[in-house]
Amino acid sequence: MPHFSIPISPGGALLDAFIGVSQARRAALTTASQPIPPLQPARALLDTGASCTCVDPSVLIALGIPSTGTTLVNSPTTGTNPQTVNVYDVCIWIPGATPPPFFLNTVAVAESQLLQAQGFHALIGRDILASCVINYNGPLGFVTVSY
User: Which DSSP state fits 31?
Assistant: First the structure.
């Protein structure tokens, strides 16, 4: 089973990922002879407490992609009052995995403005983790994600 392992840092299970335009957006840009924005590096936190994957607006702005809609999000800062946030279709690539690489052609992500201030640009939520097996090995200090 393909997998990757990452160390557990004081900030949690953080990994380096790349975020880009979705497969459909890439095809549309190619058809229109428009340039495809390069993949954007993003520090990401594996977060089993997040129901959806979230990305900082700085990454989304760099990709120049439009929102595909909105969704309601609850977080520790919103309490019981959900906040409306924009949703974007992106691709996500996590390097360092055993073949085949961990690559999602199209995934809907929620915009979250609090992430960069916390030292990362994305939360990998249960929408993605639901198709993975996660081994959190606290005593040895690493997490293995199989997919």
Answer: H
pTM comes to 0.91
Tokens of 45: 């936190």
pLDDT at residue 69 tops 90: yes
Dihedral, CA of residue 56, residue 22, residue 108 and residue 131, to nearest 10: -110
Q: What is the pLDDT of residue 52?
A: 96
Nearest in space to 114 (alpha carbons), one of 71, 145, 69, 83 = 83
The answer to whether 11 touches 89, Cβ cutoff 8 Å, is: no
For 59, the enclosing helix (H) or strand (E) is helix 57-63
Cβ density class 16-40: b for 16+ within 10 Å, e for less: ebbbbbbeebbeeeeeeeeeeeebb
> Domains of the chain: which residue ranges?
3-146
Task: Please write the tens of the pLDDT for every residue from 79-128.
Answer: 889 999 999 999 999 998 788 889 999 999 999 987 778 899 999 999 99
Instruction: Please give the CATH architecture assigned to the domain spanning 3-146.
Output: Beta Barrel (2.40)
